[in-house]
Amino acid sequence: MSPPYYFRIDYMQEDSRHKPFINAQGTWYPPKSHGHNIMVEGGISGQFWYCDGIFMRQVAHVPPDCVLFKMFSVYHHEGIIWAAKGDAIARKIGDGDDDTQDEVTDDEEAPGGEDEGWHRLSFDHDDEQTYSSHITNAGQNTRLRTQRPDQTWPKMLLPESYHAPEASRTSAQYTQYGGLTGELPLFLALIAFSVPPAHVEWVFKNCFQSAIWRAHSGDHIREDGRGMVVRVYSLPGRTEELEYYENGAWGKYFN
């Protein structure tokens, strides 16, 4: 089950004229400066989509009485998913200084205003009931809480380093354990990253049907340097429903 909502994805990449920041360990960091992340055309970039709770379809625009629910900028590079609140194309991220790329920890205040800096995708865990994982940009855990051998969505959505450790995995018979909830824009980004840019339209139309998310069996090749800005819009007076949806009250994205 899902409440209705609108969303838009803008494809993004680092401006080729910008010198990439790579630390001493060889880790690439997304640009923070305004103007160093640029929009890329093609595929569904710049298009509006509507989820009516049953299916997804492209629409011409978002009704004017809808409100922006959440917005995240997301990148993939060498098996790391980077996420930041806000629009990295239209404004700076964090302090906007590309010469300093310290990651902001969960108990620190990000410099540079209301937008936080770039974080590695992470999770908050439910350790009391379902042992599910909640996707966020600044969680307490770097890997899934658990997963089962019958679940195909971890491979579809996440690089191997985000999968649950072998010691934390559970048997297929315990279907009540190991599911996925979390920030809706980040979840939509992971769905989009699971296929090449030209196939994102297909994945949204085919992987959400009859109010259920379904994993696909295509090649899960994530391109380095591929980015996107994801906006989710709430229908008037229904923002709380999306918050409940993110927290699993309507059912998990994947179980």
Short structural description:
By secondary structure, the protein is an alpha+beta fold.
Give your account of this protein's structure:
Helix content is 12%, strand content 27%. The protein has 255 residues and is an alpha+beta fold. The protein has one domain (5-246). Strands 1, 4, 5, 6, 7, 8, 9 and 15 form an eight-stranded antiparallel sheet that branches. A three-stranded mixed sheet has the order 10-11-12, with helices on one face. A two-stranded antiparallel sheet has the order 2-3. It starts with a strand and ends in a 9-residue tail after the last helix. Residues 96-115 have a biased composition (Acidic residues). Residues 93-120 are annotated as: Disordered.
